[in-house]
Inverse folding.
């Protein structure tokens, strides 16, 4: 009789330490590692008796399963290593107060059928509120993967994950054309940088709501105040066709 020990060693991945660290923050990566470790612990407990073919087959199945999972983990690390590295956030994380979130959504007249995009979604509270209280679906975009993990976790806890999507992306490059409502709590400089994208990519009639910061000379449709701070709303205008000259 003998015992098979098969140690899980990721030390050889040290040259990719930055990518490994990023991967370690992904829930799928962590779950795969836990599963592999569990399989190896089972394998270590299997006493190999070569007279009994069933035990040998069971051990082989464990080896194959753990090998497949290890390949999946390594593949995810390699994919992350090849990803375009996202830059630092444009603004520091500061969550909107819940009463502000609700007023922003009311001001935009959010209702069932709306698709609310929160650019710089933080902990996901606006997307979650749009779904739970207003019947919309929601997409949260944030450049910080930690914020996205928090948003996903909060949406799971709120029971709305099936109607929420959270993406780790640069909001200046993200695809937002499906939005019917866009919400912002950035800085004025970020709003102004984002303004051409909003006008270019959003459909006419899409509502844009910003807490605290305006859009310079783009006059809002309406402005309200909450606790002394402004909330602005704009509507993406129809694109006027150029007049034909005869």
């Amino acid at each position: 009789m003998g015992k098979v020990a098969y140690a899980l060693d990721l030390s050889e991945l040290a040259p990719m330490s930055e990518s490994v660290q990023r991967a370690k923050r992904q829930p799928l990566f962590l779950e795969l590692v836990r599963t592999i470790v569990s399989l190896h612990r089972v394998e270590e407990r299997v006493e190999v008796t070569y007279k009994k073919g069933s035990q040998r087959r069971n051990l082989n199945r464990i080896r194959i399963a753990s090998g497949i999972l290890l390949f999946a983990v390594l593949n995810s690390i390699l994919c992350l290593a090849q990803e375009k590295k996202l830059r630092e956030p444009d603004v520091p994380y500061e969550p909107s107060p819940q009463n502000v979130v609700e007023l922003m959504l009311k001001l935009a007249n959010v209702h069932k059928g709306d698709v609310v995009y929160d650019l710089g979604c933080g902990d996901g509270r606006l997307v979650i509120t749009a779904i739970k209280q207003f019947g919309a679906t929601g997409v949260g975009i944030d450049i910080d993967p930690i914020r996205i993990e928090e948003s996903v976790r909060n949406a799971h806890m709120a029971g709305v994950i099936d109607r929420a999507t959270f993406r780790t992306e640069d909001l200046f490059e993200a695809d937002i054309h499906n939005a019917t409502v866009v919400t912002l709590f950035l800085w004025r400089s970020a709003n102004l940088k984002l303004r051409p994208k909003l006008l270019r990519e959003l459909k006419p009639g899409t509502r844009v709501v910003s807490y605290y910061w305006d859009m310079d000379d783009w006059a809002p449709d309406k402005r309200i105040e909450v606790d002394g701070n402004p909330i602005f709303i704009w509507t993406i205008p129809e694109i006027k066709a150029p007049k034909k000259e005869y």
User: Anything to note?
Assistant: The two ends are 97 Å apart (CA to CA). Confidence is low (pLDDT under 50) at residues 1-25, 46-51, 77-84. The chain has seven helices and nine strands. Strands lie at 2-3, 47-48, 115-119, 137-142, 164-168, 181-184, 207-211, 222-226, 229-235.
